[in-house]
Design brief:
CATH class of the domain at 9-82 and 192-306 in chain B: Alpha Beta
Order of helices and strands of chain B: EEEHEEHHHEHEHEEHHHHH
Oligomer: heterodimer
Number of strands of chain B: 9
Strand order of the largest sheet of chain B: 5-6-7-3-8-9
Helix content of chain A: over 70%
Structural class of chain B: alpha/beta
Strand content of chain B: 15-25%
Structural class of chain A: mainly alpha
Largest sheet of chain A: none
Radius of gyration of chain B: 20 Å
Number of domains of chain A: 1
Distance between the termini of chain A: 30 Å
Number of strands of chain A: 0
Chain lengths: 254, 334
């Protein structure tokens, strides 16, 4: 009964936050697409034009990297601050703290679904063919959902206690972006650097999307499985913390 | 009703503490509530009196289930207890209707429950066509009316009220205070926190007096509230407690405007919460605002005859400090 209520609350809050976000600006919904496009244009000029990167199909290559990365970065950075940002709310009424990061995770996911559909349309218009490996997309998206969500929960649980962590999130994301192959392919890396490169879950995920969308090949399922396993190892303690300290957060964030 | 029946809630030696960061690894424990014991009986209206920083807000948070006590126990059947919070979670770009849904659900009403009451909310808030406009376009008074209309739909087993009785302009304030008073007087179980002795005397059956996180007294509202009022007749305090520092005029004035029968400022009750929070913050930082005198207290300077003490008022002492033990006091326990 209560669980059903909080489930309803998550859905309505997700809807309300998205409505508020689009109602705030004239372009509203269009901003969802402007963000990745601006990022894409910048990287294209820098890497494609100035540095003459020799990657095949560089535009779709870049689009995939940027779109996937933006979903990850939005989930983690928005989700991380949710419990602390809800300070005034949670000091007036009891709401399970799990609700707040979940809403942020869902909003970022819905944005990405729209971006992904447009990305697929672009790839087909560009001349890349629609092929059976596309079925693996569902799995790749699910694994990334789990991975970025687990980090969002963990940071949301910790940041009220360690506010300084918030700054490290931004540094961490900026560093990780350059290590995830958003604008270069693994084959351009020196041979001995590659095992290290593939320790990064996001590098594996971005490459999986490219395998499917650009090369029409099946992704590395073993790597995806490891990322999923790692995500579970993060999400279990994160949810434990959020429920264990559910009624302590109002004291800490005030 | 009242003592004799089985209590819905029993608090025994309840205490609550906060950790104050003092340095990189240094923390200091501050007991906002040290030792509080009382029973809450079905259908009664229990008043809570005490000055700023005495632990009233902390007590309400524990009763509402927002935080848990750090020591002592609360027993009773699992009941819903909700703090009446106005304009909770309002988002400026959503319409009145959407905000009513969102706020109502956050306060604990089910989605279908709030949907059923949405027309009643619209009627009560007197918003007309504005109900479907973004609340960013509302005046402060309109937002206050909507906030009240939503919160008033709440029907928890135990209703917790922190100073909020009526909001908005004069006409709406009267209307909202009237329905709220009716709700408190009904056989609903209510815990009402207020600075205003008259309000408590009028609405409550019993009262609890908190002082620096401890119980000073619990009993029939008339006795407890009268004793509290007499104890803080300023002449007595000025003599007994030379460390009292008046707050600045600005603070005092706004704190007064936030009173139950304060000036007709829109949303004044919410300011009251904010000012309390401000003052609480200062207490956290260890300053002496705990002994702040509000303008309302100052008014009492003019009232003669409050120097005659009774058993309780002679016990007035500044038991500040961050210890978790309560000192003397005849009213401890129940």
């Amino acid at each position: 009964m209560r669980d059903k209520h909080y489930f309803d609350l998550i859905l309505y809050k997700t809807y309300a936050d998205m409505r508020a976000e689009t109602a705030r600006t004239y372009l509203g919904f269009v901003w969802w697409l402007i963000d990745p496009l601006v990022a894409m244009a910048t990287y294209y000029v820098v890497f494609g034009v100035f540095l003459q990167t020799k990657t095949e199909d560089f535009i779709p290559f870049l689009l995939v990297g940027v779109a996937v990365w933006q979903w990850f970065a939005t989930t983690v950075s928005k989700g991380a601050n949710t419990v602390r940002a809800a300070a005034s709310l949670i000091s007036q009424v009891y709401i399970p703290k799990l609700v707040f990061p979940t809403v942020a995770i869902l909003i970022a996911f819905l944005h990405f679904v729209v971006v992904l559909l447009l990305l697929i349309a672009f790839c087909i218009v560009y001349g890349l063919s629609f092929s059976p490996p596309y079925a693996a997309l569902v799995l790749i998206v699910a694994v990334q959902f789990l991975f970025s969500g687990s980090l969002a929960y963990l940071l949301a649980a910790l940041i009220p206690f360690i506010p300084d962590l918030r700054n490290f999130v931004d540094y961490g994301l900026r560093m990780l972006m350059f290590l995830s192959g958003v604008f270069f392919a693994a084959e351009h890396l020196p041979e001995r650097a590659r095992p290290w490169y593939y320790l990064n879950p996001m590098a594996n995920l971005i490459e999986s999307y490219r395998e499917v969308l650009i090369h029409q090949r099946w992704p590395d399922f073993g790597a995806l499985g490891l990322v999923a396993l790692l995500s579970c190892a993060i999400v279990v303690p994160a949810i434990y913390l959020l429920t264990r300290y559910d009624r302590v957060y109002p004291k800490v964030v005030d | 009703m009242g003592p004799g029946a089985k209590p819905v809630l029993s608090l025994r030696h309840v205490g609550a503490s906060y950790w104050l960061r003092k340095g990189f690894f240094r923390r200091r424990r501050f007991w906002a509530l040290k030792d509080v014991s009382f029973d809450l009986y079905p259908g009664e209206s229990l008043g809570v009196v005490g000055r700023n920083g005495c632990g009233k807000s902390t007590l309400l948070k524990i009763l509402a289930g927002i935080t848990r006590p750090d020591k002592g126990s609360i027993s009773g059947e699992p009941l819903s207890a909700t703090l009446l919070a106005l304009q909770l979670g309002f988002l400026p770009y959503l319409t009145g209707r959407e905000n009513a849904m969102l706020s109502g659900m956050m306060l604990g009403l089910t989605r279908s429950g709030i949907a059923e009451r949405i027309e009643a909310i619209a009627d009560f808030a007197e918003l007309g066509d504005f109900f479907d406009e973004p609340i960013a376009e509302y005046s402060a008074g309109m937002r206050a009316r909507l906030g009240f209309a939503v919160a008033f739909q709440l029907d928890p087993d135990i209703l917790l009220i922190d100073e909020v009785l009526g909001v908005g302009d004069a006409q709406f304030r009267e209307k909202s205070a009237a329905v709220m008073t009716e709700k408190i007087r009904s056989d609903k179980t209510v815990v009402l926190v207020s600075h205003n002795a008259e309000t408590l005397l009028e609405l409550c059956d019993r009262a609890v007096w908190l002082e620096d996180g401890c119980m000073r007294a619990v009993g029939p509202a008339e006795e407890v509230v009268t004793a509290y009022r007499d104890a803080f007749g300023p002449r007595r305090r000025a003599r007994k407690r030379p460390n009292v520092k008046p707050v600045t005029a600005g603070h005092a004035a706004s704190a007064d405007g936030a009173g139950i029968d304060g000036a007709g400022v829109d949303g004044a009750r919410i300011d009251s919460g904010r000012i309390d929070a401000l003052i609480d913050k200062k207490i956290d930082k260890g300053t002496d605002v705990a002994h702040a005198v509000t303008l309302r207290d100052a008014e009492r300077t003019a009232r003669p005859g409050s120097t005659q003490g009774d058993g309780l008022s002679t016990q007035v002492h500044a038991a500040t400090g961050s210890g978790e033990k309560c000192g003397r006091g005849p009213g401890r326990g129940s």
